[in-house]
Amino acid sequence: MATIVRSEKLSSIALFLDVDGTLLEIAAAPQSVSVSGELRERLRTLSLGGGAIALVSGRAITDLDALFAPLTLPSAGLHGFERRSAAGVYRRRTPPSAAALEAAREAMSHLARAHPGLFVEDKHFALALHYRGAPQLEDTVVAAMKGIATNLEGELELQRGKMVVEMRPAGATKAEAVAAFLAEAPFAGRLPVFIGDDLTDEPAFELVNRLNGLSAVVSAARPSAARARLPDVAAVHGWLAELQAEPAAALRRLSAREQAATACHDSLPPAARGSRLRSQA
Ligand SMILES: [Mg+2]
C-alpha cells in the first residue's frame, strides 16, 4: 500500500541516507571513494534549507567526517553502533571487548593472508573482510567468517554486504539509530525517509515502513522490504536534486514508486524469493 505523503515541504521530512552504494558508488577499496563538491553542496543546501538529514552508514563516524569534510552531518556509524546527534552529542553502545576484536582480527588476517584478493578493513570496533578482488571465494569467506563469529557470540556478529562480510558489534542496527534520531530535534515529528542499498539497511526499511514513512532501496532488482526503488546511485543524486528544486514532486515520486517495487518483488516465484533472501541473510 502506498504511503500518503501528507506534507510536501522539505521541513516535513527526516531524511536518512546510507553512504556506500547509495550516495557513493562502491569502489574497489573503501578508502578509494571520494565525495564530489556537488554532492557535498547538495547535502549542505538541503540541510540549511530546513531538511533534517543524517548519514546512516557502516563506516565509522570519523571516516564519514573525513569523507564529507568540511561538512559534518548528524551521523550513525558502524551500522548503528555509534551515533552523533544534530546537537553534536556522541553516543555509542558498549564496545566489544579488546579480546574479541583481537581474536576476530587475527582470524580474519590469517584468512586474508591465505587467499590473494582478500583484504581486511579495520574499523576499530568492527572488522570487514572484503572479497571484491576474489568473488569466487564467497562461499569460503562466508563459511570461515561464520566459524569465527560462532566463537565470538554476544560480542561481534556477522553482517553480510556487497562483496564484504563484516564482524560488527553485536546488537547494533541501523533501525535503532534511525529510531534514536526520530526521538530528537530536528528529526522528531517528521516523515521518515530512508534510502539504502544493502542488507544492513533492511531493518531500517522495516522500521520506516512501520512508521508509514518512505523506504527506498538502491537496486534495480534485489528483493527488499523497501517499498520504493531507485535503480542506482545516479538516480539517488537525481532524486536529491529534485528534492531541492521541488520537494513535493520528489516526495510524491518516491511514494508513487512503491507499488512498482512491490510488484517487482511479488513477481519473483516464492521459492526464489525465499532462497534469495536466505542466501543474503
Ligand atoms: Mg550501502
Bound molecules: magnesium ion
Looking across the biggest beta sheet, what order are the strands in? 5-4-3-2-1-10-11-12
Strand residue content: 15-25%
Count of domains = 2
What is the CATH architecture descriptor of the largest domain? 3-Layer(aba) Sandwich
**Silhouette:** globular
Outline the low-pLDDT stretches.
262-281
- What does the largest sheet look like? 8 strands, mixed
Helical fraction equals 25-40%
How widely separated are the two ends?
Answer: 25 Å
Secondary structure tally: strands = 12
CATH level 3 topology of the largest domain: Rossmann fold
Q: Mind telling me the CATH class of the largest domain?
A: Alpha Beta
CATH superfamily of the largest domain: HAD superfamily/HAD-like
What is the mean pLDDT? 89
Q: Look at the helices and sheets and give the structural class.
A: alpha/beta
What does this entry look like structurally?
There is one protein chain. The protein is an alpha/beta fold and 281 residues long. It has 2 domains: 10-93 and 172-277, HAD superfamily/HAD-like (Rossmann fold), CATH 3.40.50; 98-169, Trehalose-6-phosphate phosphatase related protein, domain 2 (Alpha-Beta Plaits, 2-Layer Sandwich). The chain is 40% helix and 19% strand. The protein contains 10 helices and 12 strands. It has helices spanning 37-48, 61-68, 98-114, 138-150, 174-182, 202-210, 233-245, 247-256, 258-266, 270-280, and strands spanning 13-17, 52-56, 75-77, 82-84, 90-92, 119-122, 127-130, 156-161, 164-169, 191-196, 214-218, 228-230. The strands form 2 sheets. An 8-stranded mixed beta sheet has the order 5-4-3-2-1-10-11-12, sandwiched between helices. Strands 6-7-9-8 form a 4-stranded antiparallel beta sheet, covered by helices on one side. Strand 4 and strand 5 (90-92) form a beta hairpin. Helix 1 packs parallel to helix 7 and helix 3 (98-114) packs antiparallel against helix 4. Magnesium ion (MG) is lined by residues 18, 20-22, 196-198.
